[in-house]
Amino acid sequence: MSVIALDQKAKDARPARETAEARALRETTPTHWFPYAAPHARGRDVRENAFSFRGISRKFGDKTVLDNIDLDVPAGQFIAVIGKSGCGKSTLLRLLTGLDRPTSGTLTVNKGAEGQNRTRIMFQEPRLLPWARIAKNVEVGLTGIAKGPQAHEQSLAILREVGLADRAKEWPSVLSGGQRQRVALARALVAHPYILALDEPLGALDALTRIEMQQLLERIWLQQAFTAVLVTHDVSEAVALADRVIVIDHGRIALDIDIPLERPRRHGSPELARLEGQILDTLFGSAA
Length: 288
Description:
The chain has helices spanning 20-27, 89-96, 134-139, 148-161, 177-189, 207-224, 235-241, 270-284; strands at residues 3-7, 49-60, 63-74, 78-82, 104-110, 119-122, 195-199, 227-231, 244-249, 252-258. It is of the alpha/beta class and 288 residues long.
């Protein structure tokens, strides 16, 4: 039987090591920042885990999708989860967000300093409401948290952050695919999440829009310091964004590797290429 424990403790602290470039990204705030956020970006506290998996398994009938997973993720860390189709990576994300429950094991989720369950998920499809204007779509992310003028103000604030404040009154149908994904990101971020789960949210975008969205996601993560869990098939995307990459193979963790590179990172750099090669060797086996 599964047991889900919720730890409400979280403390603020600045990261021990931060490059000038990363600090500049984090401190680049819009004219009007979130009216409900703290004056300064929330720091990452490596002493606290955002969540922990202990012996987590998930079965569907006779098929074992996740098999005895142990995983600790510190608060504020950006991790990427990679694996072949059907390996269990999306199931792991569904367990984390409460959309599914484990067959066995213990899942502990830290609620953060606010003591509220601020775990949000962003899917590959924007899943916008076609009958609601852009600002109203973003306000959906504040259900049970804020409503009326307060929700509208917060919606406009995050739309400014993703560069869509001027589209607030428009319908989803008139936006491009990249713009719709920006709205979906705004909806996920408007509640100022403690954990943001990302289920291949950039997979359907063209290459240039995808890089632009990666940069946007990284900038907001540096500002807000939420814990990010990105499920992706794209190894280059994983090493460009993540502090740490988890490779899942046949329901087990086959590789758990840190990405100790300074930010911002350059696509195609030798350091990224070396790490990509190590991950691909784990997924497909070394050519040697």
